[in-house]
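Why should sequence recovery work at all? Because a backbone constrains its sequence more than one might expect. Tight turns favour small or flexible residues, buried strands favour hydrophobic ones, and helices have their own preferences. The token representation captures these environments compactly. In the example below, the structure is given first.
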């Protein structure tokens, strides 16, 4: 079922999003060669608790951590670990914050030290693809318009779009309908309506778009060892420009 949120529900989600943004900004200050993603995960769990919130994905279908931490060729759902991040790594930290029942979801990719030119370009293109998708997320448009905007831009820049994982509706639980693919055809799919809350979260690879699963049953990585980057926002569909609840630049 697709739910459309009331003004009060959106306000609750915005409060969760504000805390999520603050958490990401703290993480950005922590990211450097030598830190571990387990240290980041421990910080997030404690920081959210101190602010009266919880990491919603902890315990979700048995998942054990407050964050997903995906490094280099890991596309998504990487487990936090005690391995130190190295200079030149690319790491995506993804989390869902629950603050008094309001949910917000955002992934952000971080450069660890000095990343090479291709890695930097992959990050730039993925972030731009996210915002091109968001631009299409308006009342009356269709889900396919979002995916088409992302796919045509990313592939035009020489990268590939992961197809095995999608954005989604959010609230009252983490994953709600509709699915939001980051590829597709314009004027196809579910019609967007005012009050819908969704995530847009393109995962863009430098090589082949296909994924393979690790033995842990959670972590997806590229089939060719190429790096993958992801940026994600939680947004609200309105009559006009979509509201980006998890926007970092406006905080």
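From this structural description, the recovered sequence reads:
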């Amino acid at each position: 079922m697709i739910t459309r949120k009331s003004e009060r529900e959106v306000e609750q989600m915005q409060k969760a999003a504000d805390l999520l943004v603050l958490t990401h900004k703290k993480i950005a200050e922590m990211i450097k060669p030598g830190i571990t993603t387990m240290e980041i995960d421990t910080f997030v769990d404690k920081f959210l608790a101190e602010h009266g919130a919880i990491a919603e994905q902890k315990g979700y279908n048995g998942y054990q951590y407050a964050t997903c931490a995906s490094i280099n060729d890991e596309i998504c759902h990487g487990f936090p670990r005690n391995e130190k991040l190295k200079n030149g790594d690319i790491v995506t930290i993804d989390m869902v914050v629950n603050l008094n029942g309001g949910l917000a979801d955002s992934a952000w990719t971080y450069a660890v030290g000095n990343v090479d030119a291709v890695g930097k370009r992959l990050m730039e293109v993925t972030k731009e693809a996210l915002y091109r998708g968001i631009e299409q997320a308006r009342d009356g448009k269709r889900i396919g318009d979002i995916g088409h905007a992302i796919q045509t831009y990313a592939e035009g820049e020489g990268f590939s779009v992961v197809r095995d994982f999608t954005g989604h509706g959010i609230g009252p639980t983490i994953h709600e309908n509709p699915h939001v693919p980051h590829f597709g055809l314009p004027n196809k799919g579910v019609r967007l309506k005012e009050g819908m809350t969704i995530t847009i979260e393109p995962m863009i690879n430098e090589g082949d778009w296909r994924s393979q699963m690790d033995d842990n049953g959670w972590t997806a990585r590229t089939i060719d060892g190429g790096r993958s980057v992801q940026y994600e926002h939680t947004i609200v569909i309105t009559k006009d420009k979509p509201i980006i609840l998890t926007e970092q630049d406006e905080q």
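A few observations help interpret the result. The chain has a mean pLDDT of 97.
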